[in-house]
Specification:
The complex is a heterotrimer. By secondary structure, chain A is mainly alpha-helical. Chain A contains 14 helices and no strands. Chain A folds into two domains: 53 residues, no CATH class; 232 residues, MetI-like fold, CATH 1.10.3720.10. The longest helix of chain A is centred in the N-terminal third of the chain and has 37 residues. Chain B has two domains: 179 residues, D-Maltodextrin-Binding Protein, domain 2 (3-Layer(aba) Sandwich); 190 residues, D-Maltodextrin-Binding Protein, domain 2 (3-Layer(aba) Sandwich). Helix content of chain B is 54%, strand content 15%. Chain B is built from 20 helices and 15 strands. The longest helix of chain C has 41 residues. In chain C, helix 5 packs across helix 7, helix 8 crosses helix 9 and helix 12 runs antiparallel to helix 13. By secondary structure, chain C is mostly helical. The chains are: A mainly alpha, B alpha/beta, C mainly alpha. Chains in contact: A-B, A-C, B-C. Chains A and C meet through helix 1, helix 2, helix 4, helix 5 and helix 6 of A and helix 1, helix 4, helix 5, helix 6 and helix 7 of C.
């Protein structure tokens, strides 16, 4: 594609007919955008439509459009105990994950912004988890959280006999260990976003406030943090989509266990589509997930893009 | 861009079309045997084929007991680019056969008389509509118990043969201060034990509930009893069992921290790798009450429809898989029994010899059954519906009575 | 007289505050490093020690055998090749995919901010939403399309898929960056008769350094770490490193050599780790320059 565009350039500049050239210049931006847009229309929206249609069929191993079951898959979905568990877990997980990542990311960024010596050393330490794929770091987390070999065991050998931390083994608490590991993975990235935001704040504003006698805490609360509004929104979008898509860390750490206590919608979709040969059920869960994602993202986008136009 | 793509496509198809005849025969193999021993064992097959002039293109995708490979296979088949041979288990083979994309091995099967040497219970999966579509490599049996010899000696020294003896041994092990059962709380591991407990209730009950999916057997007093026994066994499992990989559960038995593990015969590899000797350091028995019957899972290479150019190579591969020398070499390493019943047992250790003898006996007496936990008793949807109930019960989310009810309901919904 | 103690106090609170800040930062550094510690420590132990269950202890016998094994002798498929040969496969796939998606993202961002047209926000919104599609649902239809195009099992096909599903993010990054770029410069160049591509090449591209860094890091990490597409669309001779690593660690019924697994995991992550560590500073700078501005 890039070559094609490179070829167009000389044609344009050498073009004899000025009128044609101007028309081309007018159309060129849209022509440049068109292939990307067309690809996305097909590969994203076309496929969503495909999945939506699929969710009304009785497809098992592969797509099969010969049997129609209407809303049958959706009815079964919302009657399936694993799906209900998945939704509850998603609610717990996404609220905690987004909140903790944001608070921790902002907190670390503020701390790191205090002209810290060794910032260049600490920053990559906070950032690196984002660079690792989770299906092995998940094993490291699983071991660390396992009471018989991990943290609890170490505390016991260090003499703190009463120490107990066995959430990953308890159905009610296991989802919180997923939050711990997920926060580990992405809070550094959020920190980087906030750090960038903080560095972008106009120093004059802060100086003026200091002259007025405002304390550091006051300056952050009243002036700087409110200025971070766009960062909060960006972080929210990135985190929300990671939360809804979170799959590999659950597989690596608990694979949905103990029992079915840590199922999440993405796991549900993967297991039904590919493990249980119930493709249509997987498709219906995917459609519900897409609806959840869009109901969060679309209002955000709408307000952002409207806002952009105003300014 | 589209034109370029099209031209590129045309060129590449033209190229392959011209290139194919000049290439040597080749097979592309999708499988998930990627860990040291089993992959090395498969390498024997590759070398055998290469000796016959067939090139082996290796396409390994591990993970989820074949789930990832099956995911990749869907993409390959949808794209019209299926591999020559795919490792597959039980009902997955039947499911793919229904899609009309598998090949036909009739020629070589007839020539080598597979019908006579491969147990009928395996043939149920290797054949579809009366045609051979897959070549079985091995038979894993899943109703094994692996016991640490020292722990057993300390608990009386007699391997349990009945449920009551089992409980007695477990009690003694508990009194001796070890965790009696080494177990990993993952759905498939819970289901592996469940399989054995159901089988111990009688082969008729196993067949009715796990294979025929008879609602009356699924939601029966007997099934409630099975769940009660599962609950009893859980009392002998340590508190940290949940989520543990089966290997680490084996390690507990190897280290003497746990007394025994209920697991398929692949566990033997862990014991051997740790330098333990069958008979001397560890004991292999059938789950108490199931001697004479065997629940199995069988890895097979399912053959896909390929062009005429590769048909010959595909048949050569099928024939090489059923070669008795390969069957012996592979299964000695893998810990399983050969898929043919006429392979000499000289190369196998005591547990391996017992596995082969048990298999032949169970085959003869009609007590060889596909394992539910490993996808050989019912299709994936049903199997996983059962997993959900078994694992929820084992983790205390359901009581036995509710579990039996839920089992029947979940199976009905998944059919 | 009276000023001295209060200054002392201020200095003391200052020191205490700094101490608290540093200890907090170090505490969190420990939290972030823990899993890496577990991985590295266990990759330097013989398997026996792991089996004994001391996952957090330092090795009592140190060995680099697992690293050598993961690199060059561990079994990945039928051949004992280690991870070594798969690095090249990944690079051959990642480099073009990152380059093309970044360039397209830059051009899209340029068009969407400097050549605005009716409905441009709508187009951008639709492209952005593409970031959020779960990859599992696109697998089967993508396979179908690649098959139709004759790209099934080719590196080109794999690159195409990665480009398509990276476009949303790359376009977002560049659009937000260029949004802040003074449009007057573009208009002035236009009046001087510069063409569409001349403006892009001579005016926008030279000042796009920071955002290119962000985009490249983001795309490199995501594509390098992708497993699903690699396992489904690569052929036997183009298997990427994540699939090889998965084959190393995810065997179901084989003996699990955890020390080799961890060594392999760190090896496979080295390129992304290096990218993060080397360009971490530019990453924040790049984010600062625009990516976070909504």
């Amino acid at each position: 594609m890039t070559q094609t565009q490179a070829e167009i350039v000389p044609v344009l500049t050498q073009g004899a007919d000025r009128g044609a050239r101007e028309t081309l210049q007018e159309w060129l931006p849209k022509l440049v955008l068109a292939p990307s847009f067309a690809l996305i229309l097909l590969f994203v929206y076309g496929f969503i439509l495909f999945t939506a249609v699929l969710s009304f069929t009785g497809s098992k191993l592969l797509p099969d459009f010969s049997t129609w079951v209407g809303f049958g898959n959706y009815v079964r979905l919302f009657n399936h105990p694993n799906w209900i568990v998945s939704l509850k877990n998603l609610a717990i997980f996404s609220v905690l994950y987004i909140a903790v990542c944001t608070v921790l990311g902002l907190g670390l960024a503020i701390l790191l912004d205090q002209k810290i010596r060794g910032e260049g050393f600490l920053r990559p330490i906070y950032l690196y988890p984002m660079a690792l794929s989770f299906f092995v770091t998940g094993v490291a987390w699983k071991w660390f959280l396992d009471p018989s070999i991990g943290l609890e065991h170490v505390m016991h050998t260090w003499g703190w006999e009463s120490f107990s931390f066995r959430w990953i083994k308890e159905g009610k608490m296991a989802i919180y260990t997923i939050v711990i590991a997920a926060v580990w993975q992405s809070s550094g990235f959020v920190m980087a976003m906030f750090l960038a935001g903080l560095r972008g704040v106009d120093n004059e504003v802060i100086k003026a406030a200091q002259i007025d006698g405002a304390s550091t805490v006051m300056i952050y609360r009243r002036i700087i943090i409110p200025l971070m509004r766009p960062v909060f929104l960006s972080a929210f979008v990135v985190l929300a989509h990671l939360a809804i898509k979170s799959y590999d860390l659950v597989v690596a750490m608990t694979d949905g266990g103990p029992g079915t206590a840590t199922w999440v919608p993405a796991l549900f979709m993967q297991k039904f589509t590919f493990g249980r040969n119930e493709m249509a059920m997987g498709a219906s869960s995917a459609i519900i997930m897409m609806m959840m994602i869009f109901s969060i993202i679309v209002p955000y986008l709408y307000s952002e893009l409207r806002g952009g136009r105003r300014s | 861009m589209l034109r370029k793509l099209l031209i590129g496509t045309m060129l590449s198809t033209a190229l392959t079309a011209y290139a194919a005849p000049s290439f040597a025969e080749e097979v592309e193999v999708l499988h998930w045997w990627t860990s040291g021993g089993e992959a090395a064992a498969l390498d024997v097959l590759k070398k055998n084929l290469e000796a016959e002039g067939v090139t082996w293109k290796d396409m390994p995708v591990a993970g989820g007991g074949g789930e990832q490979a099956m995911t990749a296979l869907r993409a390959r088949v949808t794209a019209g680019n299926p591999p020559t041979a795919v490792q597959a288990l039980g009902f997955d083979i039947t499911d793919w056969a229904k899609q009309g994309v598998v090949g036909d091995l009739g020629e070589v099967a007839a020539e080598e008389n597979w019908d006579a040497v491969i147990p009928a219970a395996l043939q149920a999966f290797s054949k579809y509509d009366g045609k051979w579509i897959a070549a079985p490599v091995n038979v894993h049996s899943t109703n094994w118990v692996w016991i640490n010899k020292k722990a057993l000696d300390a608990a009386g020294g007699k391997a349990p043969e009945t449920w009551d003896e089992l409980i007695a041994v477990l009690d003694k092990m508990k009194a001796n201060g070890i965790s009696p059962i080494g177990h990993g709380g993952q759905a498939w591991q819970d289901a592996t034990i469940f399989d054995a407990v159901v089988l111990a209730e009688g082969t008729d009950f196993y067949k009715a509930s796990m294979i025929d999916l008879d609602p009356a057997a699924l939601n029966s007093d007997k099934m409630v009893g099975v769940f009660d026994k599962m609950g009893k066994l859980k009392e002998y499992v340590d508190a940290d069992f949940s989520g543990r990989d089966w290997n680490l559960a084996s390690a507990m038995v190897i280290e003497g921290k746990a007394g025994m593990q209920f697991m398929g015969d692949w566990a033997k590899g862990e014991f051997l790798k740790a330098g333990l000797k069958p008979g001397a350091d560890f004991v292999c028995i059938r789950f108490p009450g199931t001697q004479g019957a065997v629940t199995f899972n069988s890895d097979q290479f399912m053959m896909f429809k390929v062009g005429d150019a590769n048909k010959a190579a595909q048949l050569k591969m099928a024939s090489a898989i059923e070669d008795p020398a390969f069957q012996s070499a592979f299964n000695v390493v893998k810990g399983s029994a050969p898929a043919r019943t006429d392979v000499p047992n000289d190369a196998f250790d005591d547990c391996g010899k017992k596995a082969m003898a048990d298999l032949a006996e169970a085959d003869k007496s009609g007590k060889l059954f596909g394992s539910m936990a490993h996808g050989h008793a019912n299709p994936a949807a049903v199997k996983n519906a059962m997993y959900d109930v078994i694992t929820r019960h084992f983790n205390g989310e359901l009581d036995s009575k509710a579990a039996a009810e839920e089992l029947a309901n979940a199976v009905a919904a998944a059919q | 007289m009276s000023a001295a103690p209060s200054q002392d106090n201020a200095a003391r609170t200052g020191i205490i505050a700094r101490a608290v800040i540093y200890s907090l930062l170090i505490l969190f550094a420990v939290y972030y490093l823990l899993p890496l510690y577990v991985m590295v420590v266990n990759s330097l132990k013989p398997l026996d020690e792991i089996r004994q269950g001391q996952m957090l202890d330092l090795p009592s016998t140190w060995t680099i055998e697992p690293w050598l094994s993961a690199w060059s002798t561990a079994q990945i498929g039928v051949s004992p090749t280690g991870l070594k040969p798969y690095f090249l496969n990944s690079i051959l796939m990642v480099v073009p995919a990152v380059a093309v998606s970044t360039l397209l993202g830059a051009l899209n961002g340029y068009v969407l901010t400097k050549w605005r047209f009716r409905g441009d926000n709508m187009v951008f919104g639709l492209m952005l939403l593409a970031c959020f599609i779960p990859f599992q649902i696109v697998l089967i239809p993508s396979a179908r399309i690649l098959g139709e195009l004759g790209l099934a099992g080719t590196v080109t096909g794999l690159v195409l898929i990665h480009v398509v599903y990276g476009l949303g993010f790359t376009t977002l990054f560049f659009r937000n960056y260029y949004e802040a770029f003074p449009t007057e410069l573009v208009r002035a160049a236009q009046i001087d008769g510069a063409s569409f591509f001349q403006i892009f090449r001579r005016i926008l591209l030279p000042s796009s350094g920071p955002i290119i860094v962000v985009t490249v890091i983001w795309q490199f990490t995501n594509i390098w770490n992708d497993f699903l597409f690699g396992a489904s669309f690569a052929d036997f001779d183009s298997i990427p490193i994540t699939v090889a690593l998965n084959n190393l660690v995810n065997s179901s019924t084989g003996v699990k050599e955890y020390n080799v697994h961890f060594a392999g995991a760190v090896l496979a992550a080295l390129p992304t780790l290096v990218v993060y560590i080397v360009s971490g500073r530019y990453f924040v700078r790049g984010l600062m320059a625009g990516a976070v501005k909504g």
